[in-house]
Amino acid sequence: MRLSARQLSPVTHWCLIVLSVTACYFATAQIGIQWAIVREQISPLWPAAGVALAVPILLGPRFWPGITFGALLTNITLGPSLLAVVVISVGNTLGPLLGYYLMRRRGFRPQLDRLPDVVLLVVVGAIGGTAISALIGTGALVTGGGLAAADFWPTALVWWTGDAMGVLTITPLLLLARRFRPPRRISLARWAEAATLGVGTLGVSILAGTNPPKLFVVFPVLIWAALRFRQAGALLCSLCVCVFTIFAAARGLGPYGGYELAHRMLLAQAFNATVGLTALTLSTIVLQRDRATAEITDAWRQITEMVDLIAPRQSLRSAMTTPREPGKGDELAG
Asked: What are phi and psi of 216, to 5 degrees?
């Protein structure tokens, strides 16, 4: 029985997706604003930047107006002027789109199952594209009178690192979410291990932000997550660590207490970048190892089946063509 429901027109479909992108960008931007440290507008972790890069990768570049509208809605009440808000929104759109086009030209695949894809996401998406948005946005603030010219580079640094961390932590999770399939059966031991990993990640994230500095304690947990729970587990753990690190750095807690704001952010973002890169790279290497093992196992099975198929025929042929021992036939004939 066929459904008689009326299908949406292409224009309506496009509009609905653009509205969804706008809502998603605006919602994640509101989360980032909660951590804002410059003009209540620039945050050391900007999840909306991760959403902005994921949109052209997953949906296509033709839905870019959703990014622009989301940025407009986010910045319209923050100012400093309408023109500055428009320029900031254009920069927030232009950076991810340029990053996407460069990544696509270099053969980027959204499955993130190859190490070159991770390198492209980090170098082009998280470092290159976000730098464009940060420079345009900071320039708009200075030109619009919302920021002193002397604060250009410190503000641009916070903007750039915040966007980069948003790409590094949020974009991979969105790319993985599209192909995530929940397992049918999960053993009790597996649930217990996941719960233990979650509690452990929370514990080391808090411990890393205390004095004396104990930042290194997070890496064994990240390795555990990557080896046992692959990319999803490692990325979620790294996101948790980054959130707690930014919270401590923004408030000058623990090892970040004796530094200026810009210095604190630089130290925190360097640590967060190391955490994110470790989680993403190691989990991708583990995924490649699993895939190579599966391919070798499959090839071995096929070879075994071919040997089992050929062996009986080869045995029969050998029996029919076995040469006689010299002299035996002659002795019988004599």
From this structure: -70, -15
Give 164-208 as a 3 state SS string: HHHHHHHHHHHHHHHCCCCCCCCCHHHHHHHHHHHHHHHHHHHHH
Taking the C-alpha atoms of residue 149 and residue 89, their distance in angstroms, rounded to an integer, is 20
For residue 275, give the 3-state DSSP assignment: helix
Query: Model pTM?
Result: 0.83
> Do residues 214 and 207 make contact, with C-beta atoms less than 8 angstroms apart?
yes
CB neighbours (10 Å) of residue 59? 15
CA atoms within 13 A on the CB side of 278: 20
Which helix (H) or strand (E) is 65 found in, with range?
A: helix 64-75
- What's the CA angle centered on 246, arms 153 and 53, to 5 degrees? 70
Count of residues in the chain: 334
For 230-241, what is each residue's pLDDT tens digit?
888 999 999 999
